[in-house]
Here is the input.
Amino acid sequence: MKPHIFFDARAMRLHLLDQRLLPNEQKYFVCANVDDVVYAIKNMVVRGAPAIGVTAAWGCVLAAANAPDGSIWRDKVEADLNRLASSRPTAVNLVWAIKKMRGLFNNRDLPDHLQQKWLAAASEIENEDRHICQAIGKNGESLIQDGDTILTHCNAGALATAGYGTALGIIRAAWDAGKKVSVIADETRPLLQGARLTAFELSEDGIPVQIACDNACATLLSQGRVNLVIAGADRVAANGDTANKIGTFGVAIIAKYFNVPFYIACPLSTIDISCPNGASIPIEERGEEEVTIMAGKRIAPTGVGACNFAFDVTPAPLISGIVTEYGILRAPFEKSIAMAIRGAAGA
Here is the structure.
């Protein structure tokens, strides 16, 4: 698969593989300024919490590159960073990356100096994310046995990160270890990230994958056709409650009923210790047209609206473990999360 995030430092352009067009077309959306990056994040050109964080970091570089002359340049850069930070509300990596970049911005900086600092920092964030995903894969690979079938929801693969993936990173690590695994990917309405993106990634890697309608989950698990579920996360609260793509909560309930392990895979940067629980996580609502229109054609009667929550929250008691680069965190999550955050801070 082609790199889906590429920054051309010579031309000062951010190239994003347009995920809205996959799997039928592989075209890049080119960002020349912060307006373009905000559009790309809001309109799902790029999605997935870690990938959004990496994209936001490169957006900061473009803010510095396009800073105006004169005394107002700092105010303009700050305004651009604020617009980036508000482009999507649920994925915490967005704010995390901008906070990290902003921490390097000081009163002695001139635009050229800031641009060079942020170029190095954004590159580091992108490279670090790849290494983190590989560590998540290594830590989670032991959860999968030879011959297992794993159910996934939405896309938590290379396309949702800087590369390799979180949930799919674990599956890739198991496959690379010689385990003959297979995957069932929930289609994930309304934008079909499972059918379009997860299936695309796995098929490119030669890993056996089938697509299932979201509402087939209970039947699949009741028939014993799924050994474990692994999903990604857009924000994890301090108590382990986890926000992920809409429908994840329902999958977790069904997995609990049929005694199928349900795991979350995410970097520590997706854990928001300022959120005490899932009720504190903001849930994005998107436009009705994503539900009422498919492939350019309206599928609902004219005048009928739609509820379009982009995410839901899976309560911590439904989660068997949270796989991070630090290790597999288990209940009580308040304790294991706090220990992991402290351990990472002291590393």
Summary: The chain has a mean pLDDT of 96.
